[in-house]
Specification:
About 5% of the residues have low confidence. Helices cover about 15% and strands about 30% of the residues. Among the domains are: about 40 residues; about 140 residues, Jelly Rolls. The chain has three helices and ten strands. Strands 1, 2, 3, 4, 5, 6, 7, 8, 9 and 10 form a ten-stranded antiparallel sheet that branches. Bound molecules: 2-acetamido-2-deoxy-beta-D-glucopyranose and calcium ion. Calcium ion binds next to loops.
Length: about 250
């Protein structure tokens, strides 16, 4: 019994080998081994494709590229915050003094108008009779405030301040040397040499500060031969003066 089974098994094995052989002959690839062919012949249906593997590790860093071209200039940035205040500069030079102001006057307009007025303009009617005394100008052209006294020939200051004085004299018959006096002191002197058969003129002017109570007048200076101040109906010799401006603070 056992021997018969062995014979059967061998017969089957031979049959299988024969089949394999026939298959090998039919294959185009002569390299394929008989065993593999047998395995294909005996294998089941192909399996499904496997899942994707996990991502690989990062590669190494690449080398540095070549240097690029210079880019265009960018737009200006926004305005910055204002800086802190600087320290004060050095003190500048002293300015020129201001002009003295004219003090205001209380009261009605008429009073203030007369309070600071002082002016006179006078002339001679005849030639000067004597030297060395004040010349008395008795021809009154203007003397509203009566600060000029024709009886003494002197201007007497009431309003202290700066005054302008001037004189324009006709010279005849002899030389003229006159002086403008203030408080018995000759301030300016004018001299004219008379030419025979002629009429000359002598003149002078001055700005003076005059205190209240001071007197100003014109007087022939020197001796008789300088007493040529002359006047008649058609040749005048005049003397004048007026307040240019009163002292600062006067009347306040
Ligand atoms: C005064 O002036 C007039 C001209 O206006 C002249 O004729 C006369 O001679 C002058 N007087 C003297 C003393 O020269
Ligand atoms: Ca002369």
């Amino acid at each position: 019994m056992e021997q018969r089974s062995r014979i059967l098994f061998c017969s089957l094995a031979l049959l299988v080998k024969l089949c394999c052989y026939l298959e090998v002959v039919a294959e185009e690839d002569p390299q394929q081994s008989t065993r593999e062919t047998c395995a294909n012949w005996m294998a089941g249906a192909p399996g499904y494709p496997g899942h994707n593997g996990a991502p690989g590790r990062d590669g190494r860093d690449g080398r540095d590229g070549e240097k690029g071209e210079k880019g265009e200039q960018g737009a200006p940035g926004p305005k910055g915050d204002s800086g802190t205040l600087g320290s004060a500069g050095a003190e500048g030079p002293q300015g020129v003094p201001g002009l003295p102001g004219i003090p205001g006057v209380k009261g009605v307009k008429g009073d203030s108008a007369t309070a600071y007025r002082s002016a006179f303009s006078v002339g001679l009617t005849t030639r000067v009779p004597f030297p060395n005394i004040p010349i008395k100008f008795t021809k009154i052209l203007y003397n509203e405030q009566n600060h000029y006294d024709p009886t003494t020939g002197k201007f007497r200051c009431i309003i202290p301040g700066v005054y302008y004085f001037a004189y324009h004299l006709t010279v005849y018959a002899s030389d003229v040397k006159v002086s403008l006096y203030k408080k018995d002191k000759a301030i300016i002197i004018t001299y004219d040499q008379y030419e025979k058969n002629d009429v000359d003129q002598a003149s002078g002017s001055v700005l003076l500060h005059v205190e209240a109570g001071d007197e100003v007048w014109l007087q022939v200076y020197g001796e008789e031969e300088n007493n040529g101040v002359y006047a008649d109906n058609v040749n005048d010799s005049t003397f004048m003066g007026f307040l240019l401006y009163p002292d600062v603070g006067y009347g306040q």
